[in-house]
Amino acid sequence: MMKIRVWGCRGSLPAPGPENNYYGGNTSCVEVTDGETCLILDAGSGIQRLGRFIDPKIKEIHILLTHLHIDHTMGMGFFLPLYNPSVKVHFWGPSSSVTPLLLRLRRYFSPPFFPVRLADLPNHPEIHELAFNDFSIGEFQIHSEYVCHPGPTLGFRVRLGKKTFAYIPDHEVRLGSTHFPTNPEWTSGFELANKVDLLFHDGGYTVPEYEQKLGWGHSAVEDTLDFATLCQVKHLAIFHHEPNNTDAQLESIFADSMKGKDLGFEVELCREGAEYFL
Ligand SMILES: [Zn+2]
Ligand SMILES: [Zn+2]
Q1: Which residues have C-beta under 5 Å from ligand 1, the single-atom ion?
Q2: So what's the pLDDT on residue 177?
Q3: What is the pLDDT of residues 25-60, one digit of tens each?
Q4: What was the pLDDT predicted at 176?
Q5: Alpha carbon of 197 to ligand 1 centroid (Å)
Q6: Treating both helix axes as pointing N-terminal to C-terminal, what angle do 247-258 and 221-230 enclose, rounded to 10 degrees?
Q7: How far is the CA of 170 from the centre of ligand 1 (A)?
Q8: What is the pLDDT of residues 53-87, one digit of tens each?
Q9: Is the dihedral of CA 116, 120, 125, 131 positive or negative?
Q10: How far, in Å, from the CA of 35 to the mean position of ligand 2?
Q11: In the chain, how many domains are there?
Q12: Domain of residue 178, CATH code
């Protein structure tokens, strides 16, 4: 069984505070396990807490980064297993035609951003570059591909047995297809999310907000609902909540976007601490 736990689903910047307690303030971090293999999707601020609660029996950890924006990487240096000599950590992330992933990770692990260098860690993490790939980690079969977002950015489709989970936290789904939402083969991310059991997908804006932020890399809630419909997903959890929106504002945007819609799948706002079992 695939167990998915959300350690952070806020977008762009951590947003702690009592008005945000229900959906949580930590940025992107999702743990996926089958009891043997530990995958961590993104290393936002949520990974710090995950590092304190991770099963101590796990000696090999795979961190899969969708991209290098700070909200998806800011927690890396605070992940305690990196400092445990008996744990091997792998970083998987998007390749770029400009700079190798190792050098891009070294920028984070260096002054003035961070005092500890990658080479100072007791176990040097193993680095794996990804683009359009199919690969396995333990029993998990994973497909990665680029999606519409500034800079090289991946989405992941994770399969265990017959169950599938797609993770596309940062995605401007409307860009790239003039006929969205009707042309699946021209829609960014379609192959990742096609008929999955569960999709976590970017969706923080109202339509008027999106129109003010064209090209910023994110999606309106309504576009996310259309994308999930196009992909015939079974369950959607909307991810990457705007840091300026309180719990009440998130719910009101969601309710407005759902008005008059008769969707054939379950949908909710993703929440820090939520668990899904596939
Ligand atoms: Zn982000
Ligand atoms: Zn981003």
Answers
A1: 11, 71, 170
A2: 82
A3: 999 999 999 999 999 999 999 999 999 999 999 999
A4: 75
A5: 23
A6: 50
A7: 5
A8: 999 999 999 999 999 999 999 999 999 999 999 99
A9: positive
A10: 30
A11: 1
A12: 3.60.15.10
Residue-range definition of the domain harbouring residue 101: 3-277
For ligand 2, the distance from its centroid to the CA atom of residue 273, given in whole angstroms, is 22
- How far is residue 153's CA from residue 130's CA, in Å, rounded to a whole number? 10
Q: Which tokens in the block code for residue 217?
A: 């890399």
The Cα angle at residue 138 between residues 228 and 59, in degrees rounded to 5: 115
Residue 51 CA to ligand 2 centre (angstroms): 22
What distance lies between CA 276 and its chain's CA centroid? 15
Length of the chain: 278
DSSP single-letter state for residue 132: S
Model pTM?
0.97
Neighbour-count burial of 170, counting CB atoms closer than 10 A to its CB (0-12 exposed, 13-18 middle, 19+ buried): buried
Local structure of 52: helix, strand or coil: helix
* Range list of β-strands (E), the chain: 3-8, 29-33, 38-41, 60-64, 88-94, 126-130, 133-137, 140-146, 154-160, 163-168, 198-202, 235-239, 266-269, 275-277
In this structure, the dihedral spanned by the alpha carbons of residues 200, 173, 240 and 46, taken in order and rounded to 10 degrees, is 60
User: How far does residue 262's CA lie from ligand 2's centre (Å)?
Assistant: 30
- Token digits of residue 25: 């303030």
**Whole-Å CA distances, 41 to 27, 91, 133, 241:** 11, 10, 16, 17
Residue 238 to residues 51, 101, 138, 219, 225: CA-CA distances in angstroms? 24, 28, 28, 10, 9
Amino acid at 190: F
